[in-house]
From TrEMBL:
Keyword Metal-binding on entry: no
Matches recorded under InterPro entries: Aminotrans_3, Aminotrans_3_PPA_site, Dat, PyrdxlP-dep_Trfase, PyrdxlP-dep_Trfase_major, PyrdxlP-dep_Trfase_small
Family per similarity comment: Belongs to the class-III pyridoxal-phosphate-dependent aminotransferase family.
NCBIfam families reported in the protein's UniProt record: dat (TIGR00709)
Protein name: Diaminobutyrate--2-oxoglutarate transaminase
Comp. bias intervals (Gly residues): 368-378
EC number: 2.6.1.76
The organism of origin for this protein: Streptomyces beihaiensis
Pathway participation: Amine and polyamine biosynthesis; ectoine biosynthesis; L-ectoine from L-aspartate 4-semialdehyde: step 1/3
Keywords assigned: Aminotransferase, Pyridoxal phosphate, Transferase
Length: 469
């Protein structure tokens, strides 16, 4: 049965399929971390609907919330009308926001996908400021529609200026750590202050507090605070894309909470729908310049998604799952870092909370400063080689000529793909990310137990050992 389904869908669906090409499984049942295939095999699912499932598959509180709406006879589709279900969802979202934003927040329901909400955010700041330029970052991923794609570097848009996102392992300035982040911030500041550059007055800056598709790159809190003060001083709205980082994933309810940064606009999707499609923007009320009808869309009123989302947000908040993600994430990161000591092909292990990346490298290959972080095309799978700097060139301001700078080995997409396949053989589902798809990514549900987390680490370690052999 499974073989037939796989064959028919491969023949009928677009060649653009992403996950299905790498994961030849036919899920028929799922609960928590576990997916069961039509062949009866069980898998630990660390892809979690591309980071959507904060509570894992079919959590009882989510199912109950969905059933309650179905049993109540409420309309399932309400356009943008007011309902008790929407009221409860909005209240729960506002309850979790940074207080300085919650006190004066507006919410807009945007349609089913994260990319819909990104488009709304970009249009909002352009409308509100009357300006059109946009500041975005290397390695960013914001979605697949035109505006979001341009902000991710995957489509040409002269209005977008790309700035360096801070990275440790493959710091574009060759220093990493706090100094690398400081240099990235200074680069941004100098461009904004260059009156001839023409970018000093953009409509907004959009960033991910931790880049996901770009290869799991956590931004240092100090850098985020610098971006906040640089934009605030110049009246540039700051948009935080928390589509992937939100709802406890990184160890705080929203990833901006780690730094105390209060963005002007937050883009929310994935986990806020409790596994059903839902996307919103929340933003400061003085940006709410829309005229009636200025931004619309048919599918903004999915009551099942709002109810599932309310249940998810409340469960994460009441059970302090963000704190748990922080503790468990630290433990998993610590255990996975020993892999880097044991196997030269494990170049870097990084992450925040339960958003974890393991970068595979070719230890024999000469250094590649572009590596697998910060690609101009974010997580786009077909972006190999695009957007990088010339090989071997490292820019280290203040460095004396001739000083050697250690350059990490070249990213190894073939090894990452082999690890992903070896994981699947061992009943573990993982995804790849980064510019060259050389970063193995783990996005387990926040409800993962200690034993399950240990099993995930064991299986991944075993897969790496098999590939490294
Ligand atoms: N922003 C970020 C940070 C994301 O990770 C994603 C999806 N991976 C998106 C936007 C786009 O969301 P969607 O795929 O639902 O359009």
């Amino acid at each position: 049965v499974a073989e037939g389904i796989l064959r028919r869908q491969a023949a009928r669906e677009s060649a653009a399929r992403t996950y299905a090409r790498a994961l030849p499984i036919v899920p028929v049942r799922a609960r928590g971390l576990t997916i069961e295939g039509a062949d009866g095999r069980r898998y630990l699912d660390c892809l979690s609907g591309a980071g959507t499932l904060a509570l894992g598959h079919n959590h009882p509180v989510v199912l109950e919330a969905i059933r309650a709406v179905l049993d109540s006879g409420a309309p399932l589709h309400i356009l943008d009308l007011a309902t008790p279900v929407k009221d409860a969802f909005t209240s729960e979202v506002f309850r979790t926001l940074p207080p300085a934003l919650a006190d004066r927040a507006r919410i807009q329901f945007c349609g089913p996908a994260g990319t819909d909400a990104v488009e709304a955010a970009l249009k909002l700041v352009r409308t509100a400021t009357g300006r059109s330029g946009l500041l975005a970052f290397t390695g960013a991923y914001h979605g697949m529609t035109e505006g979001a794609l341009a902000a991710s570097g995957g489509a040409r848009d002269v209005r977008v200026t790309r700035l360096p996102y801070p990275q440790d392992y493959r710091c574009p300035f060759g220093v990493g750590g706090r100094r690398g982040a400081e240099l990235a911030a200074r680069w941004t500041e100098s461009l904004l202050d260059d009156t001839k550059s023409g970018i000093g007055h953009p409509a907004g800056m959009i960033l991910e507090p931790v880049q996901g598709e770009g290869g799991v790159n956590p931004a240092p809190d100090a850098w985020l605070r610098r971006m906040r003060s640089l934009t605030a001083d110049r009246s540039i709205p700051l948009i935080a894309d928390e589509v992937q980082t939100g709802v406890g994933r990184t160890g705080a309810f929203w990833a901006v909470d780690h730094s105390g940064v209060v963005p002007d606009v937050m883009v929310l999707s994935k986990a806020i729908g409790g596994s059903l499609p839902l996307a919103v923007i929340v933003y400061r009320d003085d940006l709410d310049v829309w005229q009636p009808g200025a931004h619309a869309g048919t599918f903004r009123g999915n009551q099942l998604a709002m109810a599932a989302g309310t249940a998810t947000l409340a469960y994460v908040r009441e059970n302090r799952l963000a704190e748990r993600a922080a503790v468990l994430g630290d433990r998993m990161l610590g255990e996975l870092r020993t892999l880097a000591e044991r196997f030269p092909c494990v170049g870097d292990v990084r992450g925040r909370g339960l958003m974890i990346g393991v970068e595979l490298v070719d230890p024999e290959a000469p250094g590649d400063p572009g590596g697998d972080q910060g690609g101009d095309q974010g997580g786009a799978r077909d972006s190999r080689g695009a957007g990088g700097r010339p090989e071997g060139v490292r820019l280290v301001p203040g460095q004396r000529p001739g000083t050697p700078v250690p350059v990490p080995p070249r990213a190894a997409p073939h090894l990452a793909a082999a690890v992903r396949d070896a994981c699947l053989d061992r009943g573990l589902i993982v995804e790849l990310g980064g510019r060259h798809s050389a970063v193995v990514r783990l996005l387990p549900p926040l409800t993962i137990t200690d034993e399950q987390a240990a099993a995930v680490v064991d299986r991944l370690a075993d897969a790496v050992a098999a590939v490294a052999r």
